[in-house]
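re: that complex we talked abt at group meeting.

here r the seqs, copy pasted straight from the sheet so there may be weird spacing, ignore it
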Amino acid sequence: MPKPRLYINDVAVRDGFQIEKAFIPTATKVSLIDELSATGLAKIEVTSFVSPKAVPALADANEVLAGIERVPGVVYVALVPNIRGVQNAAATGAKPDELNGVMSASLTHNRANINRTHEESLAEVPAMVRIAHEAGMTMSMSLSTTFGCPFEGPVSEDAILRFVEAFLAAGVDGISLADTTGMANPRQVEALTRKVLERFPPRDETFYTLHFHNTRGMGLANVVAGIAAGVRSFDGSIAGLGGCPFAPGATGNICTEDMVNMLQDMGYETGVDLDRLIACARRVPAIVGRDTPGQVMKAGPSLETHAVPESLKERI
Amino acid sequence: MPKPRLYINDVAVRDGFQIEKAFIPTATKVSLIDELSATGLAKIEVTSFVSPKAVPALADANEVLAGIERVPGVVYVALVPNIRGVQNAAATGAKPDELNGVMSASLTHNRANINRTHEESLAEVPAMVRIAHEAGMTMSMSLSTTFGCPFEGPVSEDAILRFVEAFLAAGVDGISLADTTGMANPRQVEALTRKVLERFPPRDETFYTLHFHNTRGMGLANVVAGIAAGVRSFDGSIAGLGGCPFAPGATGNICTEDMVNMLQDMGYETGVDLDRLIACARRVPAIVGRDTPGQVMKAGPSLETHAVPESLKERI
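got the structure back, here u go
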């Protein structure tokens, strides 16, 4: 049986850089995105249209979008928290190809993150889709805390199915199920995503995306579970950049190049040039000024063999 | 369908501490092992009978074994690289319950690690089993580089099956398949261990053990794959202690409490008290004098909820 083609997206420049205290120069962002564009990634989330007061790290959204070199076939994505974000993205000169709206499956997290009830959030989605489409952009929605909420704990499967149904009714072009704080486990991922895909079959291979964090070390196991359930599109962050506000010292997003290394070892076609991706990841520690959680950037690809250490050579 | 009971072993005091440059005091080792004994682990690998010149960090094998308090039901294991190690373990006053012999599936690694050809290594196993049994200890064998060799690359499945057959012919009490440098991927783990278990069915649930490293982030995904193939016994290292000599900065063994957290979330019974295990892991950074790769020790168990941050409370 031929193995399915998988689609890999990187969110480091948005999800990773957004929590950096020191502002990362626009030119550095642009240069890293341009290097990522040559790796074979399906999508790159490059910035957010959010209040620069709330997220000063991404206040240069317009400049980043104007500065990058677009590679045909790569989808350039910007995050938007609300209608205002969509309007601002539509008004910019160099528009993103796709907008990624966010809301949270748990009420407490939705209020804490975007200051809205579920009804207020859902009521905005049809207009967000319309404005995005009128401006020539696709509009997807991300559902945070799909697999658990750091404030409320478990989130019911029925609630997730209702959100997916509402997003579909609003005409979204894609849905991302996000494990915002690394609470998902492989059994849960396989069961829930299987239900979603059976109830609401995807119109194409990249309609559903899984977005995992590695906060408790389960991230790559969840990717394998998601593939088993039929998902073909996965977010990661080069160098494992990102973080979890409730777990100081814990890792954030799953690491894109660790994921690609695993998927290639498993025989999947990802379209990604692993060596180029690792080269991008190896730039990140210098950019953020600290060590990053990525493993393959330190250990090398699985099948990169090593010389026998000099101290042992006499035995061999 | 009831979920299978799983058996969790910790190797931090041996596999982790053996590479520490500063000698960890015997009393610290004993106190940590005693605390681990109360967590519900199936086995604890507490030391090695190796040349104190080769591994000075574990030169206190006799003292550690004499100092710990044995908890009924917990199997205390010591690693032995050869017949001399078995003889030394048999001669000590407070013997381990089980010895774990090691050899490598790849010739280059076997020569580099224990300075023997495969024939020389295999020829010793029957005598190791006999001496261990005469001294009232069980004797298991670990096969390093089962899933790949850092010098040679891939190792053939047929080679692994031949080693397993030879170990069984020698009368071993258990076999551990070890991914010494984190090269295994989930597809490979499921395929190879399924072949081993079908060809040589285990005589009990803990006959086969999988020993993974997380060098490339795939460790917990490999555990899930191993369970699917029918393995029930898994090694880990609290706090993710351990390392890989060919990957400076990369993690070593998979983290025991991260594994237990995942397995409990998935609904498996491990017999392990996760909170107590996390308490043990949280002692480790102070003991080794640096941060350790474990995630759950930083983030807490998946379903430990958090208070809403003060700064967000007015919104809720």
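couple things i noticed - Chain A has a mean pLDDT of 94. Chain A touches chain B through 62 residues (CB under 8 Å).
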